[in-house]
């Protein structure tokens, strides 16, 4: 080809690229497709056109051809970072997890100083619960930054958030909150703020500061919703009450285990209509059980906030229960613009929401006692007479009549709470018990304990308290029947503090294992107290740290007493209010009918 032809070809492809990009931006995808295919015929090695052809095919939902184009892109230009990111997002969305991780590592190999690829790999590993690899990736970023590699503000924000995530999973909640705060200070957003707020529950937080954070969340969301000009009108109540439940946890989940039996009973009331607003993308067996109980089921996970607001409003709901608080997947911000007359927080978040538009929070006399002088809640109290929630009865697991110490010859303590609730003070207190109960063991069961990295962190923490690793037993996740039967291997459950177990303590009670709990001064640290009060086990409630470990030592050394306790718990469990869905639901129903 002579020079003139080459120049004309370059000129042609350049003008075609401009036209192709313009067509793509105007969403004229058929035209863009035609143009980029034409360019590739002229120049098969034009990486830019392969990349845009991939983007165009992706927009037309031809993902397999798009993948081939992006693979060709990074083959022609290994330094085009967006090519790796496009492939990563495709593999991740199609659940090709091995390919997703591999393409990021390939990008890192070809671009060892590119921070965004390390960040994406760190988050990918974190989400798959490969915490050590996630942390190693973050340490590499810190090394690069120290060696003068430039980092954008967006990357810096991402880095601080990931450091917060890692410290949270390691149980270092003060450090975690500090990193989240740094990330939030770069650019304010609700996800980071909910992490900061939720993180407070793991520490002995100051109520005044906590409510200020909630108010900040509210002010940010009001501003966003006002920009969308959502109206605040709502209808008055009708004779037949329409009750809504909004949650991501109407499925196999700790929250689901608590509320399914209550929903079941409420669905039988002829003057109630139950509406679900389900905010989780995946379904399971329990989800289908829930679905049958509702008059109308609405999957809202793919809807934006304004659409969910308008959907709820269109149903003329009278009372809406929000079950997730500031946890992941929550849509609590929707309630700020009050889509229904009465809004109630319940079950999935054991603290005030701090949002004035939420009218009530479901509590009981023990988690919200009258003697506490400090105001815990921005909401009014929807006070149940016995307990704030209950647990589904489950007769499938085998229940042993004997304490395991009789067979083992030693006492086994246990805790199945989320491992993030086990802080250094808890470890120190538990260690005092173990040191004073010869040959005793501690069984810890939580999802993250399947990771040897997390296990080793806990081994080290206990070793600092003179506890040999042979005294510790770690277990990861298991199916529910096996999980419940594991309580047959425990003599005494040790509750965490200040964040008590909720569902896990109810499960321990169902499997007739006594719970040693430390009484706190907030909802989140009074759940164990409430459960023990309802079990008539007041003696298992400690007033302070010292009393906690002294009781633990005393109870563990009296096997006859432990066997008597188990026998009494077995005899009483069938009629216990903690598992009595009819009684709880009837009390719940009566209170609903009295709301104004």
Structural class: alpha/beta
Query: How many E strands?
Result: 13
| Low-pLDDT segments | 3-8, 229-236
Individual helix count: 24
The CATH architecture assignment of the largest domain turns out to be 3-Layer(aba) Sandwich
CATH homologous superfamily name of the largest domain? Glycogen Phosphorylase B
Q: Largest beta sheet, briefly?
A: 7 strands, parallel
Strand order of the largest sheet: 3-2-1-4-5-6-7
Taking Cα atoms only, what radius of gyration do you get, to the nearest Å?
28 Å
Helical amount: 40-55%
State the end-to-end CA separation. Answer: 85 Å
Beta content: 5-15%
Q: How many domains, in number, for the residues?
A: 3
Characterization of the model:
- The protein is an alpha/beta fold and 596 residues long.
- It has three domains: 1-112, Serine Threonine Protein Phosphatase 5, Tetratricopeptide repeat, CATH 1.25.40; 241-383, Rossmann fold (3-Layer(aba) Sandwich), CATH 3.40.50.11380; 404-579, Rossmann fold (3-Layer(aba) Sandwich).
- It has 24 helices and 13 strands.
- The strands form two sheets. A seven-stranded parallel sheet has the order 3-2-1-4-5-6-7, with no helix packed on it.
- Helix 9 runs antiparallel to helix 10 (173-186), helix 13 packs across helix 24 (581-594) and helix 17 (424-436) runs parallel beside helix 22.
- Mean pLDDT is 93; it is low at 3-8 and 229-236.
């Amino acid at each position: 080809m002579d020079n003139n032809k080459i120049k004309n070809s370059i000129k042609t492809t350049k003008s075609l690229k401009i036209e192709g990009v313009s067509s793509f931006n105007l969403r004229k995808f058929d035209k863009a497709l035609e143009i980029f295919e034409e360019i590739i015929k002229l120049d098969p090695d034009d990486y830019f056109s392969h990349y845009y052809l991939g983007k165009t095919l992706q927009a037309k939902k031809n993902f397999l051809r798009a993948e081939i184009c992006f693979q060709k892109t990074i083959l022609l230009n290994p330094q085009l970072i967006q090519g790796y990111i496009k492939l990563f997002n495709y593999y991740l969305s199609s659940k090709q997890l091995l390919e997703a991780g591999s393409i990021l590592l390939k990008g890192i190999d070809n671009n060892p100083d590119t921070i965004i690829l390390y960040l994406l790999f760190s988050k990918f590993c974190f989400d798959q619960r490969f915490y050590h690899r996630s942390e190693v990736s973050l340490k590499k970023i810190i090394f690069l930054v120290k060696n003068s590699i430039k980092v954008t503000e967006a990357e810096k924000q991402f880095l601080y958030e990931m450091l917060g995530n890692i410290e949270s999973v390691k149980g270092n909640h003060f450090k975690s909150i500090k990193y989240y705060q740094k990330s939030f200070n770069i650019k304010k957003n609700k996800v980071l703020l909910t992490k900061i707020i939720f993180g407070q529950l793991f520490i002995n937080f100051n109520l005044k500061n906590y409510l200020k954070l909630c108010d900040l969340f509210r002010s940010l969301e009001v501003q966003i919703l006002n920009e969308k000009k959502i109206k605040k009108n709502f209808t008055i109540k009708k004779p037949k009450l329409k009750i809504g439940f909004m949650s991501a946890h109407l499925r196999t989940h700790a929250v689901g285990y608590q509320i399914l039996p209550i929903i079941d009973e409420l669905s039988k009331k002829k003057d109630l209509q139950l509406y679900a607003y389900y905010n989780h993308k995946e379904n399971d067996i329990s989800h289908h059980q829930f679905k049958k109980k509702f008059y109308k089921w609405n999957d809202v996970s793919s809807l934006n906030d304004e659409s969910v607001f308008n959907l709820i409003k269109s149903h003329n709901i009278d009372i809406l229960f929000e079950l997730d608080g500031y946890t992941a997947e929550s849509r609590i911000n929707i309630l700020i613009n009050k889509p229904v007359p009465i809004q109630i927080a319940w079950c999935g978040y054991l603290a005030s929401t701090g949002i004035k538009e939420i009218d009530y929070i479901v509590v009981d006399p023990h988690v919200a006692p009258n003697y506490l002088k400090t105001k815990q809640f921005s909401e009014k109290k929807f006070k149940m007479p016995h307990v704030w929630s209950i647990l589904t009865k489950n007769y499938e697991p085998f229940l042993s009549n004997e304490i395991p110490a009789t067979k083992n010859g030693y006492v086994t303590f246990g805790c199945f709470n989320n491992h993030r609730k086990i802080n250094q003070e808890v470890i120190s207190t538990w260690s005092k018990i173990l040191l004073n109960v010869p040959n005793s063991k501690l069984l810890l069961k939580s999802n993250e304990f399947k990771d040897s990295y997390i296990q080793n962190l806990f081994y080290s923490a206990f070793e600092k308290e003179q506890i040999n690793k042979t005294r510790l037993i770690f277990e990861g996740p298991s199916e529910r029947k096996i999980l419940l039967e594991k309580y047959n291997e425990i003599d005494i459950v040790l509750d965490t503090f200040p964040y008590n177990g909720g569902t896990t303590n109810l499960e321990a009670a169902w499997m007739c294992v006594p719970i040693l709990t430390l009484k706190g001064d907030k909802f989140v640290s009074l759940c164990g107290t409430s459960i023990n009060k309802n079990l008539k086990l007041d003696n298992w409630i400690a007033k302070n740290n010292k009393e906690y470990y002294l009781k633990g030592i005393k109870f563990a050394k009296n096997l006859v007493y432990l066997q008597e306790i188990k026998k009494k718990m077995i005899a009483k469990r069938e009629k216990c209010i903690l598992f009595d869905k009819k009684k709880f639901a009837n009390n719940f129903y009566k209170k609903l009918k009295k709301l104004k």
